[in-house]
Amino acid sequence: MPSTADFVGNPTSFAANYAVLITEPPGLLGALATGANHNIAAMLKYFDFSGTGAMANTAVCAISNNPGGTSLPCYFLPYLPDGATTMTIGTAASYFFTSMLTGCTVRVCGPANAPTITHSNAGNVFKTAVGNLATATTAAQVQINTMMPAPVPGQLATSVTRLTMEGAYTPGNVAAASAAYPVLPGYRVKEFAPTMVTSHGSQRPELGMFVFGVLVAGSWEFHAQTTTSVEGRQKTGHTYLGFINSGVTNKSIMDNIVLGGAARFWP
Asked: How does pLDDT run across 235-255, given as a tens digit for each residue?
């Protein structure tokens, strides 16, 4: 069962093995106008990792306003639907998280001891764009980029985007995650396939991204994990001439898998 201690012990190894979902308290940003970037003060919260029970390969990172249990302090940058939020962090906590990404862009820039992070979202532009999937994705990215503040000249600036997620969705990464999927003792995977959703007349995988930062010897490092949801079943026993033996037991799989580990993207 994944835990906070497991993550702290080796964050990149943890994120290579467990698909992470972020949960966060409501109302962290208050009333902010959409269509623009907002600079917000560094937000100190608490994080705690746990399993989900039914999903063996998924961990939940719960962000909370107050400490409790095994939680530890962190910086947290909430996303603004159809807007952008920007925060500069320091060394008051050793971990950074932001809201889950499905089509957003997160950019990190600045000095290693006090980087500035922007989370930009254009979900409504994507949903309402006229045209095919590629046209909608491009339109959303244009709006996302428009809301991004200009980076400081001479400072390293790196982003992860929807295209980063799509680049991790390869047959090789899906096959590797399938082979490593933790089935129950005595079971084997019978069916295993990514969940597909229809968008702008096309089928696309249900992708997500978990972005986290870790303070190492006074300098921040940022990593991104791409995941996709999967469906299938695991089973015991075998079939004979197309007939299922009476001892066969089936269990459905509804879970998430990691595509290619957790890549460091800044610095």
From this structure: 876 555 555 555 566 778 899
DSSP string of 177-207? HHHT--PPTT-EEEEEEE-EEEETTEEEE-E
Residue 259, H or E segment: strand 250-266
Task: Look at the chain and report how many structural domains it folds into.
Answer: 1
Q: Is residue 267 part of a domain?
A: no
In a domain, 244, yes or no: yes
Residue 30 lies in a domain: yes
Q: What's the domain range around 90?
A: 4-262
147 near 120, Cβ under 8 Å? yes
DSSP-H helix ranges across 48-170 = 123-128, 133-147, 162-168
241 to 191, 235, 245, 247: CA distances (angstroms):
19, 17, 10, 15
Query: Residues 76-126: pLDDT tens digits?
Result: 999 999 999 999 999 999 999 999 999 999 999 999 999 999 999 999 999
